[in-house]
Predict the structure of Methionine--tRNA ligase.
Amino acid sequence: MASGNSFYITTPIFYVNDAPHIGHAYTEVAADVVARWHRQAGDDTWSLTGTDEHGEKILRTATANGTTPQKWADKLVTEAWKPLLETIDIQNDDFIRTTEERHESSVQLFLQRLYDDGYIYSGEYEALYCVGCEEFKPQSEIVNGTGPFEGQKVCAIHSKPLELLKEKNYFFRMSDFTERLLALYEERPDFVQPESARNEVIQFVRQGLSDLSISRSSFDWGVKVPWDDSHVVYVWFDALLNYITAVGYGQDEANFDRRWPATHIVGKDILRFHAVIWPAMLMAAGLEVPKQIFGHGWLLVGGEKMSKSKLTGIAPTEITDTFGSDAFRYYFLRAIAFGQDGSFSWEDLSARYQAELANGFGNLASRVVAMVTKYFDGVVPAPAEYTDVDLAIQEVVKKAADDADSSIDALAIHDALASIWTIVDELNGYITDSEPWALAKDPANAARLGTVLYTAVDGLRALAVLLSPVLPQATHKLWDALGAAEALGALVDQPIRDAGRFGQLPAGSTVSALQALFPRIEPAVA
């Protein structure tokens, strides 16, 4: 079992049947921000992402593109999925591919153990299958088709016709774990979050679980079933195991014990796989279940879930090429309550960029640095006696840091950002009310001017630390401009849970010119 300060977080591993859109990037950024926060707090942090490269959907896509599944996967990983991480500034510790030997061999080991312990048996199965979901669909997700698919049964998620499949398969005795799963949800209310996701999962399991088909014999693109190579492992059974194969299951037990269990961040459309099938698999293997599964909402375009197949997918570069990666990261985590659906809007993105990032945070930083340069020759002044308004700012900073840390622990990333932004708003108001430009006109006010600007500078120091997981580029620029790198060391080494302690930046530090953190964006000319 992992030590008390171990924090292991994962994204889903994404299908390589197409290029990523902002829905995928949203999940990546959320996990990255939480990982960066814990890493900077001194926790033994590990962040995992990767790609799911087996299954019938990948085989069909590769064939349609005139290549092999492996070559198709290699192409998409190299040209699309790994570049995505650079585009949105992801700082992952590992990238797992399900076609790697370290994964495939451990999948076979896991499966063999379940087979030897009697949790797997052979049988025949006939049901409606969605290639897009790579799943035999439950009745609740089968709907009547409309338009060109009228008279057919279609997938409620993909709106495409289902295929009736009949195969001899191997089955996992998942029905044996109905009561154990319900007990788990009862004993650990935070195991599945948010609350709406937890209720959905409990309702599903209470209806009773069926055994799960875990192999396919109609195609051969997948991990071979170790005792019967005419079958390949069901893609979801294979893919879920990435979370343990990536940290050493079956190969490096010391590392596995150090890292596991993990916090899984997933889209709500794959919640059932993670909150029902996955813990049942682990229970059968005698392994600890995950620490938590958090099912976030969908990004909506025109009221529908973002989808490449419906031509509603937006490439992350469409945003980052104009607004930058920091703005991308900030917008999706601030504008959408994490755990709920949220609609993407170019107008809202532009408005928040201008009001909150450029005029709010960016302008605050520029004004303060400029005033220290103008009134104190670029040297951070020593504060004199603090007044009530100064102490109030210190209290705002401390409370914001404490509240943000609590929110990150609860995966309420939007609340963490809202707490941190109170510092931006309060500092802007503090400067307006204190009028340092007026104080500078009378030498008798020099001590008061120094106190006001020191308070503002150290507030910026706290903001740089607290916002560094979200805005890594802008905060590094600010950190350097404040002279904090020389005085306190690298930004990434600052203890984030200590950021609210006021007065850390030494007086006498030298500020330097700060270019606009969020430059003005000219509207496109039609």
